[in-house]
Backbone:
């Protein structure tokens, strides 16, 4: 029996620079909703690189689908487009140090647990990566952190959580 059901999110878009930023925000919001905040930066970077590749290389159009799937302890992020050509990975040594492109899939490989590409029917492909996901139950996430033994031994020491000052409400600096 599966103890944690699959969770799924799909976004269809044109891989244009303005839309890529919107998809990053959607991915971030979805991962927050699933209580996977620690994965946001890596997932957003990975999806940005995959969408940038669609924008730069996909033919005949830039239409694609981004899919997030959380199954048990694994988040899979995939981008499906209509170009059947599979991506080629240039080695880091093969890329000129002043080149402005050619490192995207190497970055995806660096931030992910696994990644790959596969044909999708006769006229498309799917490029994907996975991240290990430990879902934090909402009731556990809302609990205040436990006090450490050092807190009890040294109560006069200020901890990071105590650094927010208790001050008066902000006032406008504008005269008038």
Residues:
């Amino acid at each position: 029996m599966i103890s944690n059901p699959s969770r799924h999110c799909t976004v269809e878009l044109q891989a244009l620079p303005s839309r890529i930023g919107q998809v990053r925000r959607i991915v971030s919001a979805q991962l927050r909703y699933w209580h996977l905040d620690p994965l946001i930066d890596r997932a957003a970077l990975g999806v940005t690189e995959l969408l940038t590749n669609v924008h730069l290389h996909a033919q005949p159009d830039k239409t694609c689908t981004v899919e997030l799937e959380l199954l048990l302890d694994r988040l899979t992020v995939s981008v499906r487009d209509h170009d059947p050509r599979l991506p080629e990975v240039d080695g880091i040594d093969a890329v000129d140090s002043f080149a402005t492109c050619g490192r995207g899939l190497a970055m995806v490989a660096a931030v992910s647990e696994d990644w790959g590409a596969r044909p999708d029917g006769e006229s498309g492909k799917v490029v994907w990566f996975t991240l290990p996901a430990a879902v934090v139950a909402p009731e556990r996430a809302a609990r205040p952190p436990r006090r450490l033994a050092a807190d009890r031994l040294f109560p006069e020491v200020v901890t990071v959580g105590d650094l927010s000052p208790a001050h008066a409400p902000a006032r406008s600096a504008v005269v008038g």
In short: The longest strand covers residues 63-71. The domain at 7-132 is CATH 3.30.565.10 (Heat Shock Protein 90). Strands lie at 7-14, 63-71, 74-81, 114-119, 125-132. Residues 145-176 have pLDDT under 50 and may be disordered.
